[in-house]
Design goal:
The chain is mostly beta strands. The chain has one helix spanning 2-23, and strands at residues 34-38, 53-56, 62-67, 80-85, 92-99, 110-116, 129-132, 142-144, 150-152, 155-162, 167-172, 174-178, 183-187. The chain has one helix and 13 strands. The strands form four sheets. Strands 3-6-5-4-7 form a five-stranded antiparallel sheet, with no helix packed on it. It is elongated, with a radius of gyration of 27 Å. The relative contact order is 0.11.
């Protein structure tokens, strides 16, 4: 009798576990949304934890960007940004919601997610945008055009023209944030330097 009671208890425990597993087979969205991608086919046998669909909430507008590992330390949760959608040049206020703790295995860049505070225009999933962050640099930082900055395995540099000698010289720089005006340089240049802004690839 005791053996049978034990078997009955074990059977009830197995039934409860199977019901719990069966519940995972019903995919229920937390609220209305849009299925943007389907990863499996009807009738396909899938393993536990395997993605089935990609669900998105169109009512919450977010922007995803990627930054290299050498710059990720400059971005913290709550930092303010200005987002300009390519579809409409209106400026939208945003803030960083999340900085991924690990780099993307393919790009080796760190994903960053921004929440847009107001959406006066029609933004749709998959649209592109540009995010601008206010740089916190010293007052002696110099702005140079993006076309003037060259990078190689040793770092970033510019070509400075020596007017008296009529030659250009390589000048290593410390490049910081990229803004709408250009690249902010915190070290390597002094006011009055003549920096080459075009044709740097042939020098």
């Amino acid at each position: 009798y005791e053996s049978t009671v034990s078997q009955l208890a074990q059977a009830k425990a197995n039934l409860s576990a199977q019901r719990n597993q069966f519940a995972y087979a019903s995919l229920v969205a937390p609220r209305d949304g849009v299925i943007t991608q389907v990863f499996s086919e009807v009738g396909q046998v899938v393993a536990p934890g395997q993605p089935i669909v990609h669900w998105a909430d169109p009512s919450t507008v977010q922007v995803k960007l990627s930054v290299p590992e050498s710059r990720v330390h400059l971005y913290q949760v709550g930092r303010k940004a200005t987002v300009v959608p390519w579809a409409d040049e209106v400026k939208l206020q945003a803030s960083i919601r999340e900085v991924a703790p690990a780099a993307d295995p393919l790009t080796r860049a760190y994903p960053i997610y921004l929440d847009i505070e107001n959406t006066p225009i029609d933004l749709r999933i998959g649209m592109s945008a540009t995010a601008f962050f206010e740089a916190s640099l010293s007052s002696d930082a110099i702005v140079v055009p993006v076309s003037a900055v060259v990078a190689d395995g040793l770092g970033a540099f510019v070509w400075v023209f020596d007017e008296s000698a009529g030659v250009v010289q390589r000048r290593d720089i410390q490049a910081n944030e990229v803004s709408a005006e250009g690249v902010l340089v915190s070290a390597g240049l002094t006011p009055g330097d003549l920096v080459v802004t075009a044709g740097t690839h042939v020098l």
